[in-house]
Amino acid sequence: QRYHQLKRMTEQDLFSTCTIADYSIGKSLVFGGVTLAQDEAALFNDLYTIMYGDLPRPELIVYVYLSMDRVQERIKARGRSYEQRIGIEYLEKLQERYLDHLQKLTGQRVLVIDLQEKDLLQDADAYEALRTLLQAEHPPEYGVVRL
Q1: Which of 15, 43, 57, 110 is deepest in the core (most CB within 10 A)?
Q2: In the predicted structure, residue 44 carries a pLDDT above the cut 70
């Protein structure tokens, strides 16, 4: 399903301004590495390379970094019953894999934004700082910014 969405996006009008998504296809690799057995993960990585190798890369990948305490607070506040059972160990492993995956991306703009001290819904200045940051040019490398 995600593959077909990405394929359709590549066929969009060349003059469209931009597309913003809260999903990266790399997420599948990260989750596969955490949830699949080693042989299954290896097979999935091979299929991933075949399917997504020719698709265009995003101009900017943004990862919002939060401490596990903040992640758990947000999960609790969201109130989704199926999320309440997610263990801290799983979340820590997932975050570790995400950061590792993002650091290994070469030639891509990756921005890790540390929002531990900010609440964008309550802090208009932080929200504006984020907007400014996202509109700025970024070099094709891994970068970390604390708001």
Answers
A1: 110
A2: yes
